[in-house]
Amino acid sequence: MILTETNSHDGPRDWPALLAGNARAGRQNPRQLRWPEKAIWQFRAGSAVRSAPVLDAGLLYVTAVNGVLHAIDTASGTETWKFEAGGQIHSTPSLYGNMVLFGCDNGSVYALDCNSRKKLWEAKSSAEVWSSPVIRNGTVFFGSADGKIYAVDAETGSPKWSQEPGGRIYSTIFAGIHQLYVGSGDGKVYSLDAASGKILWGTQTGNGIDSSPAVADNVVLIGSEDFFVYALDADSGEVRWKHETGLGISSSPAITEDFAAIGSKDGFLYAFELQTGKLRWKTLVGEVVTAPPVIADEAVCIQSSGTVALNQSNGKVLWQAALAGAIQSVPVLAGDSIYLASLSGEIYALR
Amino acid sequence: MDRRTFVKIGCIGSASLLVEGLDPMMRADAVPPALPAIELHGLPGYRPSPLGIPGLFPGRVVEVRDPNAIVRNRISQPIVRRLLNQTMAELTGQKSPKDAWAMFIDPKDVVGIKINPSGAPACCSSPEVVREIISSLQAVGVPRQNIFVYDRYAYEIDVGSYQALLPVGVRIVGIQDAFSNVGTGYEPTVYCDAAFFGEWETRSFMASIVANDVTKIINVPTMKDHSASGVTGALKNLAYGTFNNVGRTHRAPHSFTNPLVGLMCTVEPLRSKAVLHIMDGMRQVWHGGPLTQVQDFIEQPGLLLVSTDPVAMDTVELEAIEQTRREHGAPSVWQHDPASITSDNNLFFHDASRNLFFRQPGHIAAAGKLGLGVSDLKLIDRRIL
């Protein structure tokens, strides 16, 4: 049985990691997603944004392709501080304690102190890190395009172990308490022992994987470039069900106890019953969908060429906004506000 | 010695200025603007290679088709491997794939694989084809870290997921982040200079990776109709994927892809480094190219073509796309009917009789006249396996 934990620093308005937190539910707390009436502010990052924002204590953290991490005051939309890394950034940041962590194209994962705004440590790999660092039990896990998965100490960045399953790693690791799950460019979904890095199982799909897994109720859900969504048994890797979409899948699933949603490059957002794989609905939300969805109380929200919110029960479009086109960005739903980052480098606060 | 070529084709005429700002439907009736003077500046001191365009086998195009190479839009890696080995053997006369590739590639080469990700995911250079090219380069002795897979736009590469699907160690480069002000990645001394429509930036610079980093280029175009150039194949993939600021050469309904596509391919070191062209015809877009995602206009013929002559290759491609358009009752890409022109992208993407520009497939023959290859279908040594 997979156990997940919540970052103890999660506050009621916080969104500390990709798809909201380590549980990767893609939601904060059950809440009504209101139709936003207006943009409160707009911030220009000065560069494309390929990652998703995260939120903590009134600061929105956004990484931009030109190598800058921006900390933006959510009340005013102004930049409180920024950090320039040693390369381009495609990685969604993660928050842990007083730290913000992100991967960089120079092969490093950076850990910054949000208070002093200085670098605490830098952990090296030998190729770009597009995946988001995941923190569990005082360990930071991340995958690299060098084909390795790394575990480093969260306080110091010192290496604990590394494992080379095969293929480039662009998938963000899902970290249970004892097991890790990740997709690989070699087409396999891997489970590793979180303490040692030992590979516990690997399940082959029909093409490479850049989707990031989510786990709930002992089911690992992930997409593959072979056009299929896979639901795997978290203990054995056995395929419980799979569903064919019209094109490859770079999007990542957002899940609740009994519901899962994932996009496909065929332009549709698909919703399933998690345990059975029964398709609840599919809705065309863009020309090509590569970003993950997020789930609010009654709605599913996703960015493609714009931003679309759909009724969770039937997939009908509730509202859409022709802004914030994205490859991998994800709306942050917090309180009465929605924060969006766009590929073109604009950050919006809607309310 | 600075290789500097000055191509004086014409001068900017008043017609080009007059058409600006008019409704596209009215512009459709306007007289095409006169060709401006085009200056080409190659890399100073670069010595042309005998492997350069049109390469070791001018006029020869090898073509193979296997309907099982792509089934339900999925491409078979083993079949692609077989097709590539067959075509390379036929092109070169070498029995072993390694010997065939060794005619073009030295183990010390730094090789750029010029993909075409525009139009991903519906139709782009298939990762399966690119993987086989990488394997072939490795078999010759090129280490993975000396292989660059590149194109202009990083976000298009992202959408194609090449970064995840290609082997560890191979470097994947988006020359220019279209939305970034940093790291433009272009060589300031190598450029084409022309003012087509009175634009303020008249230069298009060559990608630094082409000018300075790689020693050989394997060109992997796709088979697509193109709303401005007629088709996009080997020539356009090289030219408009190597130089920046090329969108300025289209202003509806006119386009200067003819002659600019060919002219750009003559600029050194691009011409010398592009030693082999492998056209991915697994999918074929016959309308809506290069960016369409509308599956109604995308066939899956399972084709692969190889050549050292991009003009001959594109001539074969043009004929294939014309044939498909005829089969579907669509007008020829040569048609220049003002009534077909629309400024409505949605209409264009869903109606094969409409277009955004007067297409310019003549850019292929124009490239032939520049010495880049054979454009007469009757003179092409077309070998269908």
List keywords for this structure.
heterodimer, A: mainly beta, 4-stranded antiparallel beta sheet, disordered N terminus, B: 385 residues, 11-stranded mixed beta sheet, globular
Strands, helices and their partners?
The complex is a heterodimer of chains A (351) and B (385).
Chain A: E1 39-44, E2 54-56, E3 59-63, E4 68-73, E5 79-84, E6 94-96, E7 99-103, E8 108-113, E9 119-124, E10 134-136, E11 139-143, E12 149-153, E13 159-163, E14 174-175, E15 179-183, E16 188-193, E17 199-204, E18 214-216, E19 219-223, E20 228-233, E21 239-244, E22 254-255, E23 259-263, E24 268-273, E25 279-284, E26 294-295, E27 299-303, E28 307-311, E29 317-321, E30 332-334, E31 337-341, E32 346-350
Antiparallel strand pairs in A: 1-32, 2-3, 3-4, 4-5, 6-7, 7-8, 8-9, 10-11, 11-12, 12-13, 14-15, 15-16, 16-17, 18-19, 19-20, 20-21, 22-23, 23-24, 24-25, 26-27, 27-28, 28-29, 30-31, 31-32
Chain B: E1 4-7, H1 14-18, H2 24-27, E2 38-41, E3 60-65, E4 70-71, E5 74-75, H3 77-92, H4 97-102, E6 111-114, H5 127-140, E7 147-153, H6 154-160, H7 162-165, E8 171-176, E9 186-193, E10 203-207, H8 208-213, E11 216-219, E12 222-226, E13 230-232, H9 234-242, E14 250-251, E15 254-255, H10 257-265, H11 270-273, E16 274-285, E17 298-299, E18 303-307, H12 310-327, H13 345-350, H14 362-372, E19 381-384
Parallel strand pairs in B: 3-19, 6-7, 6-11, 7-8, 11-16, 12-16
Antiparallel strand pairs in B: 1-2, 2-9, 3-18, 4-5, 9-10, 12-13, 14-15, 16-17, 16-18
